[in-house]
Write a structure and sequence with these properties.
- The chain is an alpha/beta fold and 169 residues long.
- It has a single domain, classed as 3 Solenoid (Pectate Lyase C-like), CATH 2.160.20.
- The chain has three helices and five strands, in the order H-E-E-E-E-E-H-H.
- The strands form two sheets. A three-stranded parallel beta sheet has the order 1-2-3, with no helix packed on it.
- The longest helix is centred in the N-terminal third of the chain and has 18 residues.
- It is elongated and about 85 Å long.
- The protein starts with a helix and ends in an 8-residue tail after the last helix.
């Protein structure tokens, strides 16, 4: 009888834990929770360790992020126009609706990045590695027109990493 009571008590406790709803703030975007998700921004962020940093509607235009490790960072509707990202590591980045207009991505590693609705107008991409990155189809023709070079970090060709068609000639 005592054993049965313990078992029922344990079952009741387990049900209580499993049926308790998770607070909504725990699963919503930081900006919806009223929290600031923006990592600290300064004009010179060269060579910094910025893994998993979050930039929501951030103004990173012209910021020096060269040689920084931004693995797993999130850029949500952020402006990186003219940003210096030379040699930056952007593996597994999520960049939604962000602008890389005129950004310097030479020799950057953008492997496995998700760049949905992001634009790369006039970005410098010589030597950039886009292996397994998801880039909007509308951006690919302009990127392929400018794609050249070889990434010195990953030893990959830029055109090949973007799956560009081979030039006729």
């Amino acid at each position: 009888m005592v054993h049965l009571r313990r078992l029922l008590g344990l079952a009741a406790a387990l049900l209580l834990i499993l049926l308790t709803p998770v607070p909504a703030w725990a699963i919503t975007a930081p900006e919806l929770r009223g929290a600031s998700a923006n990592a600290v921004v300064s004009p010179d962020m060269h060579g910094r360790q910025l893994q998993a940093a979050e930039y929501i509607k951030a103004d990173l235009a012209g910021v020096d992020l060269s040689a920084s490790d931004l693995t797993g960072a999130v850029f949500n509707t952020s402006d990186l126009s003219g940003a210096d990202l030379r040699g930056a590591i952007l593996r597994d980045v999520v960049a939604f609706a962000s602008r890389f207009k005129g950004a310097d991505l030479r020799n950057a590693v953008l492997e496995n990045g998700l760049f949905m609705q992001s634009s790369f107008t006039d970005a410098r991409i010589n030597g950039a590695d886009f292996t397994d990155a998801v880039v909007d189809r509308s951006q690919l023709p302009q990127l392929c027109r400018r794609a050249a070079g070889h990434n010195s970090i990953t030893d990959r060709d830029t055109r090949t990493s973007l799956n560009c068609p081979q030039p006729r000639g």
